[in-house]
Write a structure and sequence with these properties.
The protein is built from 9 helices and 12 strands. The chain is an alpha/beta fold and 301 residues long. It binds zinc ion.
């Protein structure tokens, strides 16, 4: 028998849940229940300047109104600094991470000097300036070393991973992302490190989240390997697009969930996931019917 299944929903308390975030919440709940597992909620409030005080409670109330109740008290990332620091210390001790003294301007200059000026709308791939030391500068941020030391010199790290909906995926993290930040110059913990440390601490076996987060997966798998942590199964759910064709998000003013008719709201999220229409008088009864429907979809995939 394998490890017990544990799924999770990990909202950022930057605004109330909207139709798009409910799709990921519902899918993660259905998946955990269909696999006879447990379902956890984690409040991803590491990016503190964007978090709204009290919004975690609003989100938990929205979930509860839809019958989505976590099996444990929610974990808040803002309480986890010591665990993130311990993970960073381990990476530093193993030579897998290093301090970086570069400002954004330093990075742009180094890229321009190397003939790789940053393209608009593309994040700069860190040129590796501080890989061999700070050369007298002070550390600003901490980065993960994404190249693997080999007999013939440093080698790129390509991560191959499998998405339960999207199929085989791969990313050359060294080339496409570069040595990414674990702790930012403003002292905040980077999303990647927090997620990896918390998924392991909560023993999460099945990550189900929105497709907009799929691009982070290869980086998170590299971090899991560097920390000697297990890699969970991944499933990225379809995004809900607004009228302008962009993904619904708190940033573009997506409306909070309409909870006047919870079954109808669940039904709308379920349709995005390809579930059939289910007739039920209450959210709880609807969810009970939706579990075997989800299991069927996953079996036929
Ligand atoms: Zn640097």
């Amino acid at each position: 028998m394998g490890a017990p299944v544990i799924g999770r929903f990990a909202p950022s308390p930057t605004g109330p849940l909207h139709a798009g975030s409910l799709v990921a919440a519902l899918a993660s709940w259905l998946d955990a229940r269909a696999l006879h597992g447990r379902w956890l909620v984690r409040i991803e409030d590491v990016d503190t300047p964007r978090c709204v005080p009290g919004m975690d409670q609003v989100i938990l109330q929205q979930l509860a109104a839809l019958g989505l109740i976590a099996d444990e008290p929610p974990l808040a990332q803002s309480t986890r600094g010591a665990a993130y620091q311990a993970a960073l210390d381990r990476l530093l001790a193993a030579g897998a991470a290093y301090p970086c003294g570069c400002s954004r301007r330093d990075i742009e200059r180094a890229l321009a000097a190397a003939g790789q000026p940053r393209q608009r709308f593309h994040a700069a791939v860190y040129p590796g300036t501080c890989r061999s030391g700070l050369h007298g500068r002070s550390p600003r941020a901490w980065r993960l070393r994404t190249e693997r030391a080999g007999a013939g010199g440093a080698a790129d790290q390509r991560v191959d991973w499998f998405d339960r909906r999207l199929g085989a995926q791969h990313q050359n993290v060294s080339r496409e992302v570069g040595d990414f930040v674990l702790r930012r110059a403003d002292g905040l913990w980077a999303y990647q490190l927090a997620v990896v440390v918390d998924d392991a601490a909560q023993q999460v076996t099945h990550v189900v989240r929105g497709e907009d987060l799929a691009d982070n997966t290869a980086r998170q798998i590299l971090l899991q390997r560097a920390l000697g942590l297990p890699t969970p199964a991944y499933l990225h759910t379809p995004l809900v697009l607004g009228r302008d064709g962009h993904k619904l998000s708190k940033q573009n003013g997506a409306a909070a969930l309409d909870l006047r008719d919870p079954v109808r709201t669940l039904q709308a999220a379920a349709a995005v996931l390809g579930l059939p229409r289910l007739d039920a008088p209450t959210p709880q009864a609807w969810l009970q019917q939706a579990v075997p429907a989800w299991a069927g979809i996953m079996r036929d995939r």
